[in-house]
């Protein structure tokens, strides 16, 4: 029972507790560059998740064979193999999407999120745990990309995933589609998430404090009595 | 003339950091102080120039003649990784002061997507050998300019009264957004 709880935690922590974008601030380049629309964000998120999951599967399978000195080079070769697969498949099956994402599919190789997960988790943990960890992180990354892409597409083009959401009355803000909009949106979102976390922490501290206070007042009262 | 336009376009109009979002990690990580930002910028420009030469040779002398273009990504990344190591060793041997100035930043450059992005852009746009070098120099100086500007702003920001939740990465991103807006002004130059 205890183990199962542990496993689900490996998966869930990637979604929020150590969300790659908002908490670890890793892999920023694709996050900013491709989130012009929600569909681009989804495609990039899926591609990154695919590479992340399969690379961490292989890395955790061979973690006991690879000598420590050459591990980074090994990781990079494994990652670039899967990135090549994604790149070629995208070019063959989804040529338009591949063109829209441009060099950012090959650039998944140097996404620090992937190398970071390999180094910090997959090279030290069992296959099942690293699979769960990488799936969680990948989905967390994908969710962040979709949120960012939806906000930018909505404000800059009135649509989400190509469907018109805002009425014609709304004048699209061109800046949201431009590079500056990416920086501004991500900065504001990150600030918002920090503010939320701080507020939660504050509430928890106050909860402990109030519990402590009521306990001490109870104690003093009993002492007085 | 064409080369000058290429240089200006890579440095200012299509600035790697502010228009293509390449090399965001060092841009946010190493932009705390002007001196270290300048060292980082110079190191990146240097590695970019060497990479542009080597990647062009690999692409046109090995990969294309032998029909191996599906190996572009692994070969470029391995070449960059070993190149960075090599450059680090050479600088250590040749110039101690330069090594001390760039020292810690060189290994970091391996995972800088600006370098691989430069090699891939060069291959995608089919630049000639000279064009590729000029493109690398332009991109490198654009990166240096952006990171030094950012460091200057961040040194001032330390004294500013930023809301608690926005300290660190968020305010840096917002400032970068405003910088990107300013750089859009260059778009009409050519």
Total strand count of chain A, please?
A: 2
Radius of gyration of chain A: 22 Å
- In total, the number of domains of chain B comes to 1
Uncertain segments of chain B are none
Helix/strand/pairing category of chain B: mainly alpha
The share of residues in extended strands of chain B comes to under 5%
Give the largest interface pair and sizes: A-B, 41 and 41 residues
Output the strand order for the largest sheet of chain A.
1-2
* End-to-end Cα distance of chain A: 46 Å
Major sheet characteristics of chain B: none
What is the domain tally of chain A?
A: 1
**Subunit arrangement of the protein:** heterodimer
Q: What can you tell me about this protein's structure?
A:
The complex is a heterodimer of chains A (225) and B (190). Chain A is mainly alpha-helical and 225 residues long. Chain A has 9 helices and 2 strands; from the N terminus they run H-H-H-H-H-H-H-E-E-H-H. Chain A has helices at residues 2-12, 28-34, 38-61, 71-93, 95-101, 112-122, 127-157, 174-177, 179-224, and strands spanning 159-160, 163-164. The radius of gyration of chain A is 22 Å and the shape is flat. Chain B contains 9 helices and no strands. Chain B has helices at 2-13, 24-29, 34-63, 72-94, 96-102, 105-109, 113-124, 129-157, 169-184. In chain B, helix 1 (2-13) packs parallel to helix 8 and helix 3 (34-63) runs antiparallel to helix 8 (129-157). The model of chain B has no long low-confidence stretch (mean pLDDT 86). The chains are: A mainly alpha (225), B mainly alpha (190). The interface between A and B is large, with 41 and 41 residues.
Properties at a glance:
heterodimer; A: 225 residues; mainly alpha; 2 strands; B: 190 residues; 74% helix; globular
Topology:
The complex is a heterodimer of chains A (225) and B (190).
Chain A: H1 2-12, H2 28-34, H3 38-61, H4 71-93, H5 95-101, H6 112-122, H7 127-157, E1 159-160, E2 163-164, H8 174-177, H9 179-224
Antiparallel strand pairs in A: 1-2
Helix pairs in contact in A: 1-7, 3-4, 3-6, 3-7, 4-5, 4-6
Chain B: H1 2-13, H2 24-29, H3 34-63, H4 72-94, H5 96-102, H6 105-109, H7 113-124, H8 129-157, H9 169-184
Helix pairs in contact in B: 1-8, 3-4, 3-7, 3-8, 4-5, 4-7, 8-9
């Amino acid at each position: 029972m205890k183990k199962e709880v542990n496993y689900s935690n490996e998966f869930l922590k990637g979604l929020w507790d150590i969300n790659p974008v908002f908490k670890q601030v890793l892999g920023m380049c694709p996050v900013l560059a491709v989130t012009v629309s929600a569909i681009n964000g989804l495609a990039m998120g899926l591609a990154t998740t695919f590479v992340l999951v399969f690379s961490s599967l292989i890395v955790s399978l061979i973690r006991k064979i690879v000598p420590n000195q050459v591990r980074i080079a090994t990781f990079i070769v494994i990652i670039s193999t899967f990135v090549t697969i994604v790149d070629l498949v995208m070019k063959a099956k989804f040529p338009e999407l591949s063109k829209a994402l441009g060099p950012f599919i090959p650039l998944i190789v140097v996404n620090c999120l992937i190398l970071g997960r390999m180094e910090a988790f997959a090279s030290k943990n069992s296959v099942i745990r690293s699979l769960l960890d990488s799936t969680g992180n990948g989905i967390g990354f994908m969710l962040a990309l979709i949120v960012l892409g939806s906000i930018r597409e909505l404000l800059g083009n009135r649509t989400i995933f190509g469907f018109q959401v805002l009425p014609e009355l709304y004048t699209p803000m061109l800046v949201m589609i431009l590079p500056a909009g990416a920086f501004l949106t991500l900065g504001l979102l990150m600030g918002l998430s920090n503010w939320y976390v701080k507020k939660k922490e504050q509430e928890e501290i106050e909860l402990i404090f109030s519990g402590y206070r009521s306990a001490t007042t109870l104690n003093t009262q009993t002492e007085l009595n | 003339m064409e080369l000058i336009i290429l240089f200006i376009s890579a440095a200012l109009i299509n600035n790697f950091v502010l228009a293509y979002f390449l090399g965001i990690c060092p841009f946010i990580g190493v932009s705390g102080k002007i001196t270290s930002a300048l060292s980082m910028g110079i190191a990146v420009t240097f590695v970019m120039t060497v990479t542009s030469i080597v990647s062009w040779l690999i692409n046109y002398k090995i990969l294309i003649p032998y029909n191996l273009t599906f190996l572009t990504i692994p070969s470029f990344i391995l070449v960059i990784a070993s190149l960075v190591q090599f450059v680090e060793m050479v600088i250590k041997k040749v110039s101690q002061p330069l090594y001390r100035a760039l020292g810690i930043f060189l290994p970091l450059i391996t995972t800088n997507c600006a370098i691989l992005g430069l090699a891939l852009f060069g291959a995608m746009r089919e630049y000639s050998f000279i064009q590729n070098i000029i493109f690398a120099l332009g991109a490198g100086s654009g990166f240096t300019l952006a990171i030094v500007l950012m460091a200057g702003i961040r040194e001032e920001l330390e004294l500013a009264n930023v809301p608690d939740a926005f300290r660190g990465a968020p305010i840096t991103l917002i400032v970068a957004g405003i910088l990107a807006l300013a750089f859009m002004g260059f778009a009409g130059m050519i």
